[in-house]
Amino acid sequence: MFDPVRVCHILNEEAVDYIVIGGVAAAAHGSALTTRDIGVMPSPGLENLERLASALTRINARIRTEGDPVPVRLDGRFLQGIAQVLNLTTDCGDVDVVFDAEGIEGGFPAWNRGAVRLEVGDGVTIHVASLDDVITSKRAADRPKDRAALPYLESLRDEAGH
Asked: Which pTM value belongs to this model?
């Protein structure tokens, strides 16, 4: 059910300006660690958020809760009101729309500076956070799963010569 490539394909079709962050970004850089959601950080402009809302609607996005998902009518204004993270479940799996991630101050422009374009499955090109930024963010988040991943991600970075 979890299909991050499909999520990116839909985002690309809707011309959303976004960066993949978190575990899927690490996987795009060669990490073998698994993740159950895709984190995307959109450029915050209203027109871009309208395109994002359209993409999320196409994949039946609902707010993720402890119980059943909650339907939501998504539009750019709604998304502009999200301060940090909007946790969603979709037909393609869980999607976290992140506006302010731990460890990197400055939101999208700061993350965008180090981001790179990579091709993933089925010829889909994604804009993905740098491995250094993923590591910095995971270190700042300091959750048990992030602490467990750090030695591996740092080793991956060191092997790549960063």
From this structure: 0.93
